[in-house]
Design goal:
The complex is a heterodimer of chains A (165) and B (464). With 165 residues, chain A is α+β, with helices and mostly antiparallel strands. Chain A contains one helix and eleven strands. Chain A is 22% helix and 27% strand. In chain A, the strands form two sheets. In chain A, strands 2-1-11-10-7-8 form a six-stranded antiparallel β-sheet, with no helix packed on it. Classes of the chains: A alpha+beta (165), B mainly alpha (464).
């Protein structure tokens, strides 16, 4: 082996090592950029802890996207979960940070068990469950179970929802 | 839940990229070994192609199992781990050659080569890697064994102190010897303890995050929440005192503080951790001779060049001899550093591959850790988040502590360089960590079953 050949070999080894690194970094870059384009701007990076168990019936996961107006539903209009639609059936739904809530809100301004919405006489009632920062309908903090009217904003922490018939 | 967003971020599987990178890694191994053989004048070993074939088969098998079991897992972690393992094998072979040639010059019997041992350990590690991928379908199962894992972890940590099987090698009692086999239980303990920390913190993080008293603008937790951090601190100190193992105690304490911080998002834990670390460090410096020696050698290695500082001084000479592009594999003197194939393997690589090569290796570690942390961010269940973050952090701490020690950035503490160092326990444990990370990553990146892409697109249009 001549000195020249060994030098070439040595540079080839370093080159191949860096080739590996560069391929990795280029592929990584594409990997990093791709999700950002697909992700709506209002969504924060995937952080909210999800319930570990398989979803119970009125789960947001199963929630049909806002396609047709079949039955009443609760639509998140602002906040990290914007555009989520939860169909309202006969069961109550709970809102809070606890992983077993129907709507899990990962928000410093929401309590673990923040509020619940339950059906009553064909309408829907929202009740605050002793949350720290309160449940708000328009600009007022509710102190007792209050009937929800369609189109009125209901705010929990930084999330705003409304009832849609 | 941002299901809509998630459905849109279906990641490409990129298994072919993974395969390609593994082939490049294997090629690098072949190229490196040939270079060593030619430039040392040793000549290509008759069994070289068999050995290279074995490495290739192991690497391909791991890749095929990944395709089969965790097709959506991250495509970068496996090739990087493979490349680092192969680079380690090349360097260990290189040091074997150096040792053999030196023995020949001095008319000593030629020592048995280490590279075949390491190759065997790579096979064992790959087997365990495959086993974990096959057995562990869902990482959340591990949460059920939180306290069992904690118990096993502590027992493993304390095992070297046991009377018959414990063994002291080079002043540190971190070995267990059963029959002819020795291993470092601390390497396995780090996996079990990470599982324990993750399971424990998922349950307790809310109470640990409660802030009661504000001091200097930073909220500190209540006194009774101090408990866990104090216990881990005490155990770390115990390891330091009774096993005289600086690296392991640093690793576990750092890991716990980092996981506490991630779980609670409270800076106060970092402040507290740094404070406890400072107390422990100063105490150890004042009480233990071997810690004091380490610090003094770190401050002025050349004053102790013939005694305690010999190793670090030789390592620095090695780096300096390597310069920007290195001497080339087989052309340096990496064997002048004691323990060149374990703690100081990076010094040898620094000499023969130069700054360029060391940067490439450090970047590989950086990407590996980034992928692990990214898995932690992507996965949805809190236990998985903490586990993935914790396992990645063990790599980060280990690389920082040992690379910092070898390059004299911080006082030298003995830890293995993940994947590169000669040593079975460390290699096997690190491959198991990669397997667990791949399982978590598979679950994180797997597309949700139901929603189709058209559906998601429709939702986004309706947004405004």
């Amino acid at each position: 082996m001549t000195e020249f050949a060994l030098t070439l070999l040595r540079l080839a080894f370093l080159g191949a090592l860096w080739l590996f690194v560069i391929i990795t970094v280029v592929a990584l870059r594409r990997d990093l950029l791709q999700p950002r384009e697909a992700r709506p701007a209002s969504n924060r990076p995937a952080k909210p802890p999800k319930p570990a168990k398989p979803p119970k019936p009125p789960k947001p996961v199963k929630a049909k996207k806002k396609t047709s107006g079949t039955g009443p539903s609760l639509v998140v209009i602002d906040g990290p979960l914007a555009n989520t639609v939860i169909p309202l059936g006969t069961a109550q739904i709970t809102i809070g940070r606890a992983p077993d809530s129907t709507i899990v809100i990962d928000d410093d301004y929401a309590s673990s068990r923040h509020a619940r919405i339950y059906p009553s006489d064909g309408g829907w009632i929202v009740e605050d469950l002793g949350s720290t920062n309160g449940t708000w309908i328009e600009r007022t903090r509710i102190t007792q179970p209050t009937a929800l009217t369609p189109g009125t904003p209901l705010r929990v922490g930084r999330t705003t929802m409304q009832l849609q018939k | 839940m941002s299901t809509a967003a998630r459905a849109a971020t279906v990641q490409p599987q990129r298994r072919n990229l993974e395969l390609f990178l593994i082939i490049v890694a294997w090629g690098l191994g072949v190229l490196g070994t040939l270079q060593v053989a030619w430039s040392t004048g040793e000549g290509v070993h008759p069994r070289f192609w068999i050995t290279a074939g074995v490495v290739g088969v192991i690497a391909l098998t791991t890749h095929i199992i990944v395709r089969w079991r965790v097709p959506y897992a991250d495509p970068f972690m496996l090739p990087i781990a493979t490349l680092l393992t192969i680079l380690g094998l090349v360097m260990i072979y290189r040091l074997d050659v150096a040792a053999a040639q030196r023995a020949e010059r001095n008319d000593n019997p030629i020592p048995t080569p280490d590279v075949y041992n390491q190759l065997t350990w790579y096979a064992v590690a790959a087997t365990l890697f495959i086993l974990v991928l096959i057995v562990l379908r869902d990482h959340r199962v591990l949460q059920r064994y939180t306290y069992t894992a904690g118990l096993i972890g502590v027992i493993l940590l304390l095992l070297p102190l046991a009377p018959v099987i414990g063994a002291t090698v080079n002043g540190a009692t971190l070995w267990v010897r059963i029959g002819g086999l020795t291993f470092q239980p601390a390497e396995a303990a780090k996996i079990f303890l990470t599982i324990f920390f993750a399971g424990y913190l998922v349950v307790t993080r809310d109470s640990l995050a409660l802030v009661r008293t504000k001091v200097l603008g930073i909220g500190f937790p209540r006194a009774r929440d101090f408990g866990p951090i104090l216990i881990v601190w005490a155990v770390s100190l115990g390891v330091l005192i009774f096993e005289r193992d600086l690296g392991t105690s640093l690793l576990f304490f750092g890991l716990f503080v980092a996981m506490l911080y991630i779980a609670t998002q409270r800076v106060s834990w970092l402040v507290l951790g740094a404070g406890l670390f400072a107390i422990g460090a100063v105490g150890a410096y004042l009480l233990f001779g071997h810690v004091r020696t380490r610090v003094q050698v770190w401050l002025d290695p050349f004053a102790y060049a013939d005694t305690g500082g010999y190793q670090i001084v030789q390592s620095l000479y090695g780096f300096s001899n390597g310069g920007l592009f290195g001497t080339g594999l087989g052309r340096g003197y990496p064997d002048l550093v004691p323990f060149a194939n374990t703690d100081f393997i990076l010094a040898g690589l620094g000499e023969e591959l130069g700054l360029t090569g060391v940067f490439a290796i450090l970047l590989l570690y950086a990407v590996l850790i980034e992928r692990g942390l990214r898995t932690a961010v992507t996965v949805r269940d809190p236990f998985g988040q903490l586990l993935a973050a914790g396992l990645s952090i063990t790599f980060a701490i280990q690389v920082f502590v040992i690379v910092g020690g070898v390059t004299r950035l911080i006082p030298l503490t003995g830890l293995t360089t993940p994947f590169l160092s000669y040593g079975g326990s460390s290699l096997v444990a690190n491959w198991v960590i990669i397997a667990i990370l791949l399982v978590i990553s598979h679950r994180a990146r797997r597309p949700a079953a139901a929603p189709a892409n058209a559906d998601t697109a429709a939702t986004q249009v309706m947004k405004r």
